[in-house]
């Protein structure tokens, strides 16, 4: 069984060497590949895949010792060619993974920057919201003061209107009183003119009445004078 696997591996390796060598010296016919040519990349790729699958199946049937012995029989050039070919794929995979990791790192960095920006913007929004609330409070206070001032102004206008009304009423009353006073003075003057004779008699009687009262209170001492005679 080991001999069959060795022969199969050797045949596969020879065919792969031929295919690889043929792929390096492709024949062109009028600028196009000849699909029937052994060096055609289409047929060569299929053959390589089939050979690799056959090789994998044969290796799976071997135990570890048989694999080690078979590995020692592989020519160095063949092993190096296969290793280089497979390493190129791994390099490409590692390169793709490195690019992916780089993009992932960049996305993570962008995400952190966005989170930081969102945090800063959130803080700014909170500060602006606090300022807006303070402004709303001040505005409400000013609105209340304005309403109070308007109420006071309305009350002042009402009071002023009432005072103006009272002033007009007082002026009317003063005018009426002046008219009444003028009429009273006129009547008084007329009464003084009518009562002037009696007043003269009264004025003449006043000293006489005073004399009589004095004599009554202080009677003269004429009898004493007569007795002394």
Automatic annotation (TrEMBL):
Residues 101-205 form the Liprin-beta-1/2 coiled-coil domain. One of its GO terms (biological process) is neuromuscular junction development. It comes from Monopterus albus. The keyword Repeat applies. It comes from the Eukaryota. This is Liprin-beta-1/2 coiled-coil domain-containing protein. Transmembrane segments: none annotated. GO terms for cellular component: presynaptic active zone. Keywords: Repeat. PANTHER family: LAR INTERACTING PROTEIN LIP -RELATED PROTEIN (PTHR12587), PPFIA-BINDING PROTEIN 1A (PTHR12587:SF21).
